């Protein structure tokens, strides 16, 4: 028998979403008449914007013509899409990013998961707690961590707790880390990073020779004009940061698949002899070796997000989700819950009432209101006692869920907390 990668066996067994699915299925079987409302999983529900669909069709039609047919495209993505991104997402916001610093991919999950392989196994990684599990699990698989402690953490990782006290924004660590994963607006807490906070991180990274892996998958949900959408809006970030973005949540591409990673030419690591090596070169090599590009019609569809109609339609999508977020945030607060996030992010993070554990509250909300959410503890031990509601549902479902919870508020929240 072939020897397996033992590091996979370190991965904690009960992954969050399968466990949620198991409990929901069990409940639904026992209560077939209950109409469940799912405000749990982080997937979009509204259809793709018209401008995107039309471009998608055009892209497909081109493949039907002998002259316009396309086979393999450039691994890093077509120039028209990379240029549109550089112009609209960066230069228009005063951040200097060139088209050839942008790598088109089939998802930020893949990119944030794959990026670790261009770094040494000795690199110390820092993550927030609670955290998007991909950053941690892919480092576990690679062998960059110690064993699981049975309580939600792996040895060797520097965890940065996000608490009510620090506003769910991690503090600069005392210890040094080589690679720092940051995600703003945050999944799961809905917290955002101010310009001041990001400046602090860039300074920290410059001082400590660290690299910031900045996940901005939710930047389009920012409405406060003072909050940066990109780490590259901060001076000095080009030497110490890379950024991950996705069309998934922004434009409804979760099933269509298109994302990108920005690696400035200045960003470098060091080799065994201490020599400076640009990360751009390594990622280019990885990308061209292990990836063959996103399908042409999908890239044409993604580029349509930057057309005037596309921009207006995407704005309407985001506004619809953010209206849900407002309803949830205000509705839950009215019921007496302590709520966070949901103002510049599609997630509402709430404190469970009566000191209930995250899973206990999950079970109660499912049983009493037939509403499915996500236990905060599933994102890390600092998430215990918290709960995530997603704004990606349908408006009518959100209203119905809130009405049900409101009728039960005496049960959940006897007095205001
Ligand atoms: C949804 C999400 C992404 C995007 O993933 P894709 O693979 O591009 O669909 C990235 N980061 C976070 C934190 C997310 O929640």
Write the layout of secondary structure elements.
Blueprint: H1 16-30, E1 37-38, H2 50-62, H3 79-90, E2 102-105, H4 108-114, E3 125-129, H5 133-142, E4 158-161, E5 179-183, H6 195-208, E6 211-215, E7 241-246, H7 247-251, E8 259-262, E9 268-270, E10 276-278, H8 279-290, H9 296-303, H10 308-334, E11 339-341, E12 347-351, H11 358-369, E13 371-372, E14 374-375, E15 386-390, H12 395-407, H13 409-412
Parallel strand pairs: 1-13, 3-4, 3-5, 5-6, 6-7
Antiparallel strand pairs: 2-8, 7-8, 9-10, 11-12, 12-15, 14-15
The chain binds pyridoxal-5'-phosphate.
Concise description?
The protein folds into two domains: 143 residues, Aspartate Aminotransferase, domain 1, CATH 3.90.1150.10; 258 residues, 3-Layer(aba) Sandwich (Aspartate Aminotransferase, domain 2). Helix content is 36%, strand content 14%. The chain contains 13 helices and 15 strands.
How would you portray this structure in words?
By secondary structure, this protein is α/β, with parallel strands linked by helices. It has two domains: 11-47 and 311-416, Aspartate Aminotransferase, domain 1 (Alpha-Beta Complex), CATH 3.90.1150; 51-308, Type I PLP-dependent aspartate aminotransferase-like (Major domain) (Aspartate Aminotransferase, domain 2, 3-Layer(aba) Sandwich), CATH 3.40.640. The chain is built from 13 helices and 15 strands. A seven-stranded mixed sheet has the order 2-8-7-6-5-3-4, with helices on both faces. A four-stranded antiparallel sheet has the order 11-12-15-14. A two-stranded parallel ribbon has the order 1-13. Helix 3 (79-90) runs parallel beside helix 9, helix 4 (108-114) runs parallel beside helix 5 (133-142) and helix 10 packs parallel to helix 12. It is globular and about 60 Å long.
